[in-house]
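Take a record.
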Amino acid sequence: MSESGHIIIIEDHEGNRAAFKRALTRIGFQVDAFEEAEPALEFFRKNRDVMLIITDLMLPGGMDGLGVVKAAKEIDPEVAILMVTAHATVETAVDAMKQGANDYLTKPVNTFELRQRASALVEKRMLSSRVNELESRLGETFGKIVGRSKPMEAMFRQMELVAPHRSNVLIVGESGTGKELVANAIHEHSPRKDEKFLPINCAAIPAEILESELFGHERGSFTGASARKLGKFELAHKGTLFLDEIGELPLEMQVKLLRVLEQREFMRVGGTETIRVDIRLLAATNADLELAVQESRFRSDLYYRLKVVTIKIPPLRDRTGDIPLLANHFLQGFAQENGREGMRLSADAMKALVRAPWEGNVRELRNVIESMVVLAPGEVIGLRDLPPEILVAEDRAGAAVGQEEQPAEAAGSPQDGTAAGIPAGITMEEIERRAILQAIEATGGNRTKAADMLGIGLRTLQRKLKEYKLAGRLED
């Protein structure tokens, strides 16, 4: 690619075509010129470094300049287009701009003006590319965690403060928010970064073998123990041990874990030798451990031992400004993995992603992007390529916006002090509580039906039920 930019010229007049190419080549542009639209567009599909297309309005063959604009924008929405015509009218200019042209010139073309307009468009396109590249990297400010919203910046600062120390850290966040990524990033920024980082999911291991997984066992200690096995605590010596879903740890194992954290030593199952370890413990949960302590499902002494420092990961709905960064980050990665480099999200598709509820958080967004990369037929991912659940959420969001834009008179009469039957002065929390209560009664207490009626996700409804102390009114 030329440092000054790559340009395509589509002009059927041979003399003009040669003059345009000569004028732009002399100021450093890489220029390829074509007589007709179709071969030029085929060249464009294969050469994605093209920043500007200069096209005549009237062209031979089956496609005119307006067709070139539309087709080129479908291939690359960011490409700059300069229309050249001897038939310029206001209507022509408007049509060209509507299709996506950035500027136009009338014939006969002044060489100086051509160079000026082309240089300005290429410079703007290069600047846009640099901005997009910078934005795609801004999120990776702490390990592999993508985000530059205020909630994420606050979390990054907290991680930077806690990473160099040995203190236990409890990472709290909904399912899919990336708790293991946070734990790994803390390890990578700690003095233990050259040692092992060992994750273990407490919910994924049967209770009867969990002790062996954590502390190891001696040969013959139980049926099937044919050899000595080292546990995760021993393997993580000098490094970091990450216990995910710590809230699922059985009570008897909580006692043993507390002892290890206090004494820094343990014995393998069936063993008699005390083993001392130097580890840093990071734990994570998507459960309410304070509630679990109140209900005697989790030991309070272990809870306070674990939460020396607590890092809360914000759910994706609380940092929607990060969704474009995340979406582009995942898109670039999956496109490269699947040999589909150059894929892009249309503006409408990106808007729909931003407005989706993302009950599954970043993990759900990642899976949706991967699916679209595999299934989308073209290089530009549009609304038609989005999964049905995202389109349903977009329809609901659009309907909500439409309701907000209704005139005040349509919502109720100001004279009676009500709006749609809601008494004046009532709080938004009470309105929400009443709406949930009505949905509960209308569906006979069915969670799924109540969530559908309210137009929210099941997880959101469950959180609201707990908040408004309405959980007892629903079926399991």
